[in-house]
Design goal:
The complex is a heterodimer of chains A (111) and B (114). With 111 residues, chain A is mostly beta strands. Chain A is built from no helices and eleven strands. In chain A, strands 2, 4, 5, 9, 10 and 11 form a six-stranded mixed sheet that branches. Chain A starts with a strand and ends with a strand. Chain B is globular, with a radius of gyration of 13 Å. Chain B starts with a strand and ends with a strand. The chains are: A mainly beta (111), B mainly beta (114). At the A-B interface, strand 4, strand 5, strand 9 and strand 10 of A face strand 4, strand 5, strand 9 and strand 10 of B.
Amino acid sequence: SQQGEEDPQALSIQEGENATMNCSYKTSINNLQWYRQNSGRGLVHLILIRSNEREKHSGRLRVTLDTSKKSSSLLITASRAADTASYFCATPTGANSKLTFGKGITLSVRP
Amino acid sequence: DARVTQTPRHKVTEMGQEVTMRCQPILGHNTVFWYRQTMMQGLELLAYFRNRAPLDDSGMPKDRFSAEMPDATLATLKIQPSEPRDSAVYFCASGQLGGNTEAFFGQGTRLTVV
């Protein structure tokens, strides 16, 4: 079964707007990771937030983590057409860091 | 830049044929994952290795799929015999997992079984 589940499944916004994506997970975690996948390409790691962190920033990305609700959110500020991609969350689970992904969120940023 | 390399990038084969996909993980990474991506199922974990030892292959159809790491620089995923339902993009990823680090993905092998 998948550990991370993203929502919404799809999101369409205008360039310049902010995009907020959510991820829920089931079991306790050491960290939560967000990845981006451009069409026809492999996944690229965006940001990792540790279980003892509540918020983390990287450029236009802001990630929050609420371990009491077992959820995380990814905010992309001032979106650009180049942000159009699928976004996934993942958490390594178990002693062997099994890394599973949700079905992802398809983000479309209209120019 | 260090990167995960997968070959071939594209493969078209006839049903019943054997398919072998190869992955060169990033040197020094202790964990290698194999994933399959389809529109319907999303990104499924097929198998993964730690220090070349298989840890979990429960996501893999055992009757036709096999995954190995003959050495630290090569991971293989084999399908024999292939079926049309195996058509998908197969990704390899590697990482120095066990701590708070991420996985690095290859560009994938797009497999079409006709």
